[in-house]
Amino acid sequence: MEGRKLRCTQQVVVVIRHLRRKKEYSQEYMAAHLDISQNAYSKLETGKIPMTVDRLCEVARILDIPPTDLLAEVNLSQ
After folding, report:
1. Which of 64, 67, 42, 65 has its CA nearest to residue 54?
2. CA–CA separation, 37 vs 30, rounded Å?
3. Mean residue pLDDT across the chain
4. I need a surface site. Which of 2, 7, 56, 78 has the fewest CB within 10 A?
5. Cβ contacts of residue 45 below 8 Å, gap of 6+?
6. 23 touches 63 (CB < 8 A)
7. Could you write out the DSSP letters of every residue in the chain?
8. Of 1-5, 34-38, 43-47, 48-52, which gets the smallest average pLDDT?
C-alpha cells in the first residue's frame, strides 16, 4: 500500500508542476500564496513532504482549477 501511495503522490505533484509551469507561476509565487518558504514548496512539489488534502485544495485554488482536476490524472492501476 505504501508504494501505491507514493506513486499517487508522485502523479499528483507532476500534474501540479505541469500546471504551475503552464501558468508561468514560479515556485516563489506559489510559496508566497501558500504562506510557506520556497524551499518548503519545492519539497511539496517533489513529493519529499506529504501533501495534505487541505494543501491540495489551496494549490488548486491558486492554480484556479477544481481539486478534482489534480486527482483526475492519477492512475490507480499502477
Report:
1. 67
2. 9
3. 89
4. 2
5. 13, 16, 17, 20, 27, 30
6. yes
7. -HHHHHHHHHHHHHHHHHHHHHTT--HHHHHHHHTS-HHHHHHHHTTSS---HHHHHHHHHHHTS-HHHHHHT--TT-
8. 1-5
Give long-range contacts, CB 8 A cutoff, 24+ apart: 1-8: 4/76, 4/78, 6/47, 7/78, 8/74, 8/76
Which residue carries 519545492 as its cell?
A: 42
Calculate the CA dihedral of residues 32, 34, 38, 39 and round it to 10 degrees: 160
Task: Please write the tens of the pLDDT for every residue from 19-41.
Answer: 999 999 999 999 999 999 999 99
